[in-house]
Design goal:
By secondary structure, the chain is α+β, with helices and mostly antiparallel strands. It contains four helices and twelve strands; from the N terminus they run E-E-E-E-E-E-E-H-H-E-E-E-E-H-H-E. A hairpin with a 4-residue loop joins strand 6 and strand 7. The chain starts with a strand and ends with a strand.
C-alpha cells in the first residue's frame, strides 16, 4: 500500500523574528491529492507557530498534545517540547505517529520527533520533510548573503526553491512569522 509522503517546512530566524513556511502539497504514492493544504498552525493563542511534515492525522494528534503541554507549562516552548517528546517516545501508541514538528515562540526554533529528540538548530535555520534539506540549504545561503531579505522572505523563497527540486513539494506556500518575545 502506498503511503503519504513528504512536504517541506522551514523555519528561519533573523532580526528578532522567526518565520515558518510550508508548501501545500499532499501526495499519496505518485499522485498529488491536493495542493492547498495548510501545514502551519498557531498554538497557545497565537504565541507559538508550528509546522508539520508527515501524515496529517498524526500531525493533528501532535498539535493537540503539544497545545496541552503548552497550557500545562504556561507557554514555555522548551519545557512543553521536552515533555511532549518524552511522552511521544515512551507511549506505545504515540510512538507509531509518523510526523515531525518545527515550533517557534518567535525566539527559539525547535524540532520535535518521535525518537524523543528536541533539537535547536546550530544556525538560524531548520528544515524538515522531503524537501527540508533543499529549503535549509537555500535559507542558509540567503542568510549568508545578507541581502536585506526578512526572515519571512527567506523562508518563502527557500520553500519555493525546494519546490523546484522535490517532487513532493509545491509552490503553494504558507508563511507565518512571530517576533521575539520581550
Amino acid at each position: 500500500m502506498a503511503s503519504f509522503k513528504g512536504t517541506t517546512i522551514v523555519a528561519v530566524r533573523k532580526d528578532g523574528k522567526v518565520a515558518i513556511a510550508g508548501d501545500g502539497q499532499v501526495t499519496y504514492g505518485n499522485t498529488v491529492l491536493k495542493g492547498n493544504a495548510h501545514k502551519i498552525r498557531h498554538l497557545f493563542g497565537g504565541k507559538i507557530v508550528t509546522g508539520f511534515a508527515g501524515t496529517t492525522a498524526d500531525a493533528f494528534t501532535l498539535f493537540e498534545l503539544f497545545e496541552v503541554k503548552l497550557k500545562q507549562f504556561n507557554g514555555d516552548l522548551t519545557r512543553a517540547a521536552v515533555e511532549l517528546a518524552k511522552q511521544w517516545r515512551t507511549d506505545k501508541q504515540l510512538r507509531q505517529l509518523e510526523a515531525m514538528l518545527l515550533a517557534t515562540d518567535g525566539d527559539k526554533i525547535l524540532l520535535l520527533n518521535g525518537a524523543g529528540d528536541v533539537v535547536e538548530p546550530e544556525h538560524d535555520v531548520m528544515g524538515i520533510g522531503s524537501g527540508g534539506n533543499f529549503a535549509l540549504s537555500a535559507a542558509l545561503a540567503y542568510l549568508d548573503a545578507d541581502n536585506g531579505l526578512s526572515a519571512k522572505e527567506i523562508a518563502q523563497k527557500s520553500v519555493k526553491i525546494a519546490s523546484t527540486l522535490c517532487i513532493y513539494t509545491d509552490d503553494q506556500i504558507i508563511v507565518e512569522e512571530l517576533t521575539k518575545r520581550k
